[in-house]
Design brief:
Elements: H1 2-11, H2 32-38, H3 41-53, H4 66-77, H5 86-94, H6 102-113, E1 128-131, E2 133-137, E3 142-146, E4 155-159, E5 165-170, E6 176-177, H7 186-191, E7 193-196, E8 200-204, E9 209-214, E10 221-223, E11 233-238, H8 242-250, E12 258-261, E13 267-273, H9 278-287, E14 304-306, E15 310-312, E16 321-326, E17 332-334, E18 345-349, E19 352-356, E20 364-365, E21 374-379, E22 384-390, E23 404-409, E24 411-412, E25 417-418, E26 425-426, E27 439-444, E28 449-453, E29 459-461, H10 469-472, E30 483-488, E31 494-498, E32 503-507, H11 524-532, H12 540-557
Parallel strand pairs: 1-8, 16-22
Antiparallel strand pairs: 2-3, 2-10, 4-5, 5-6, 7-8, 9-10, 9-11, 11-13, 12-13, 14-17, 15-16, 17-20, 18-19, 18-21, 21-22, 23-24, 23-25, 23-26, 27-30, 28-29, 28-31, 31-32
Helix pairs in contact: 4-6, 11-12
C-alpha cells in the first residue's frame, strides 16, 4: 500500500505533497501524513513565490541542490514573515547544513517539479514569475531595476497595481528592456515592489542589506543571491543595519573598504568587499549575526573555478574549457560540500587523487601548486573543470573560434550562438588570403635560453627582436618588458626554453599538424634540446620526438 501511495504522489508532481516513504530512515516518518505536516499545502503555494524570487529556473534546470535551496530559503525568510507554517520554520531553523536532510530533499523535489508559475487557482491561465534585481550603475551614482527574461515571453506588459504600465521586450544579455523610467526609491527598497500583467509577475522582496556583484553582460553591479569568495562585491545597506555590516566587513580584513552615500537617502554603499583570507572569512561566517547570511557562498554539489589571471575565455563551442590563464595565476578551486563523516573531499588534479580537509566555503588557491604550461584537469570524481595555463599571450585565437557568430536573416540576431553550417552569419572581420603575417610567440623575459625545433633535426636559437632606434632613444637603458616576442620560422613545431628553475616545451602547431620526427643520426644538438625538456609534456606527439632523441643519444654513447 505504501509503495502504491509513494508512486501516486510522485506521479502527481508535488500537487498533493511530497512523499517521505523513501526519503527517511525512521519508521515513524513513513507515508503521506508526515509530508503534509512538514510542508503543508499553504507552504507549497508560498514556495512558488520563493522559487520566483530566487530566480530559480523551471524544473530546476540548473540543478540547484537541496542544501543550497535551504540556504536561500533561510535568507528569504530572514527578518520577514513570509507566512510559512510554524512547523516548516522550526524545521528550517534546526536543519543541519551537512548531509541531505528531510526538509532539503522535500524542497528540492518541489523545485524539480515547479513549472515556473505562481499558484493562483483563481486565474484561468497560470502566470510566470521572476524576482527583480537591483542595479547600481554609473559607479554607484544611479539605481535601476533589472528583470531577467523568461523563456517563451519575448514581449509583454506589466503594471504597478493601480499605476503605470510598462512594455517589456527581451534585449541584450537575456534581460528585458522597458523599466528604464521606473527609478528605484527608498519606499520600494524598504517595502517592496510588485509589477504584474497577464503573463508575467515581477516582484522585489525588501531587505535591509543587499549584496552586489559585477554582471558579466551589462558591466554594472547587480544584486546576487550568494557571496563568491575571492571576487569583488559591493554592499548596499540601510542606515539601520550599517553598524552591524561595518563590523562584519571589517572582520574579513586584508583590503581597503570604501564607504559612501547611496543614490537613495537612508542607505550606504560599501565598495571593495572581498574575502582573500580564508581563515578570516570562515571566522566571520562562524561568528554569525543578523546579516551574516550576506557573506554565505553558494552550497555547491559540483566543483567550480573562480578568479585567476585570465588571458581569455574559451571561444570554442563544446570544448568544456573554463578558460585560459597565465602560469602562476591559476584560478581558485571551489569545492563541493562533503558528505563524508571526516569532512574530507577527494580532489583529482591531472589524474592524481588526494583527500583534502577543506572548508567548501573557502576557495583553494591552485596558484600555490607549481603547474606547467598546457591543459589541466581538476575537480572531484563527479565533476571535473578543465583550464589551460600559458607563459604569455599567444597570437591569434584557438582553432575552432569561427563556430560562434550572430545568425543573420536581414537583421543579425542579438545573441551569440553556434553558426556552424549557417547560410548567413556575422562572424567577425575576415582578412584576405593575400596577407601573410609572421608567426610570433611571446616568452617571459626571465627565459635564459630558447630554441626552435623542426621535425628534420633542425635547431634554431630563438632571438628576440631588437628594439627600434626611435623607441630605444626614448627608453632607459635598463628598461625591459615582461615578455619577449620571437619570430617562428616556417617548419618549426616545438619551442623548448629554459628558466632558472627548469626546462619547458610548447607546441607551435596543433597535434594533428605536427609531422613525425625524422632527424639525422648525428643531430646531437637537436637530441640534447629535446631530452632537456623530455619530462615536461606527456603529449603523444612530443613523446615520439623524445623517443627519436633517445635513439640518437644511444648511438652517440655507443
Amino acid at each position: 500500500m505504501w509503495e502504491t501511495l509513494d508512486s501516486w504522489l510522485d506521479d502527481a508532481g508535488g500537487l498533493y505533497g511530497a512523499s517521505t516513504i523513501s526519503t527517511d530512515e525512521y519508521y515513524w516518518k513513513v507515508g503521506f501524513p508526515i509530508s503534509q505536516a512538514l510542508v503543508r499545502g499553504s507552504d507549497r503555494h508560498i514556495l512558488t513565490r520563493f522559487f520566483a524570487a530566487t530566480r530559480l529556473r523551471p524544473n530546476n534546470s540548473d540543478e540547484v541542490s537541496g542544501r543550497e535551496l535551504l540556504r536561500r530559503l533561510r535568507v528569504w525568510t530572514a527578518g520577514r514573515d513570509r507566512h510559512l507554517s510554524p512547523r516548516l520554520m522550526e524545521e528550517l531553523a534546526s536543519a543541519l547544513d551537512s548531509g541531505d536532510t528531510l526538509i532539503a530533499s522535500l524542497i528540492k523535489r518541489l523545485a524539480d517539479d515547479w513549472d515556473g508559475t505562481l499558484h493562483e487557482p483563481e486565474r484561468k491561465h497560470q502566470r510566470r514569475a521572476i524576482g527583480l534585481r537591483l542595479v547600481v550603475a554609473d559607479r554607484g551614482r544611479r539605481l535601476e531595476w533589472l528583470a531577467e527574461a523568461c523563456d517563451g515571453i519575448d514581449e509583454t506588459r506589466v503594471a504597478v497595481p493601480g499605476g503605470r504600465t510598462f512594455t517589456l521586450r527581451k534585449g541584450y544579455g537575456g534581460a528585458y528592456d522597458g523599466l528604464e523610467s521606473l527609478h528605484p526609491s527608498r519606499q520600494q527598497l524598504e517595502h517592496g515592489l510588485h509589477l504584474e500583467g497577464e503573463e508575467l509577475v515581477l516582484e522585489w522582496a525588501p531587505r535591509e542589506v543587499l549584496l552586489l556583484r559585477l554582471h558579466p553582460h551589462i558591466g554594472e553591479w547587480v544584486t546576487t543571491d550568494y557571496f563568491e569568495p575571492g571576487e569583488q562585491h559591493w554592499i548596499l545597506a540601510a542606515d539601520s543595519a550599517i553598524r552591524a555590516v561595518r563590523s562584519m566587513v571589517d572582520a574579513l580584513g586584508g583590503r581597503t573598504i570604501r564607504e559612501g552615500s547611496a543614490p537613495v537617502p537612508g542607505w550606504k554603499l560599501i565598495k571593495g568587499v572581498r574575502a582573500v583570507n580564508g581563515l578570516a572569512f570562515a571566522s566571520a561566517l562562524d561568528r554569525g549575526g543578523d546579516h551574516a547570511h550576506v557573506l554565505e557562498p553558494q552550497i555547491r554539489h559540483h566543483a567550480a573555478l573562480s578568479g585567476g589571471l585570465r588571458i581569455a575565455p574559451e571561444y570554442r563551442v563544446g570544448t568544456g574549457l573554463a578558460g585560459h590563464f597565465l602560469r602562476g595565476g591559476a584560478p581558485d578551486l571551489m569545492l563541493p560540500a562533503s558528505d563524508s563523516p571526516d569532512g574530507c573531499v577527494e580532489v583529482v588534479l591531472d589524474g592524481r587523487t588526494e583527500k583534502l580537509r577543506a572548508d567548501p566555503r573557502v576557495p583553494f588557491p591552485l596558484c600555490l601548486i607549481p603547474l606547467d604550461e598546457g591543459e589541466h584537469r581538476v575537480g572531484t570524481a563527479h565533476s571535473i573543470q578543465v583550464f589551460t595555463l600559458h607563459d604569455g599571450l599567444h597570437e591569434g585565437l584557438p582553432p575552432g573560434t569561427g563556430t560562434l557568430g550572430y545568425p543573420c536573416d536581414g537583421i543579425a540576431q542579438p545573441e551569440l550562438s553556434d553558426v556552424t553550417g549557417s547560410k548567413a552569419a556575422v562572424r567577425g572581420a575576415a582578412a584576405t588570403g593575400t596577407i601573410s603575417l609572421p608567426r610570433t610567440e611571446l616568452l617571459r623575459s626571465s627565459v635564459l635560453e630558447a630554441v626552435l625545433l623542426d621535425p628534420r633535426g633542425g635547431v634554431r636559437r630563438a632571438k628576440h627582436r631588437s628594439v627600434p632606434a626611435w623607441m630605444a632613444s626614448r627608453l632607459p637603458t635598463a628598461a625591459l618588458g615582461p615578455c619577449l616576442e620571437i619570430e617562428v620560422p616556417d617548419g618549426c613545431v616545438w619551442l623548448a626554453y629554459r628558466t632558472a628553475a627548469r626546462w619547458s616545451v610548447r607546441a607551435l602547431a596543433a597535434a594533428a599538424d605536427i609531422p613525425a620526427p625524422a632527424p639525422a643520426p648525428d643531430d646531437y644538438a637537436w637530441a640534447y634540446a629535446v631530452l632537456s625538456a623530455a619530462q615536461r609534456l606527456q603529449d603523444p606527439a612530443w613523446l615520439d620526438y623524445v623517443a627519436a632523441a633517445e635513439a640518437i643519444s644511444g648511438r652517440r654513447g655507443a
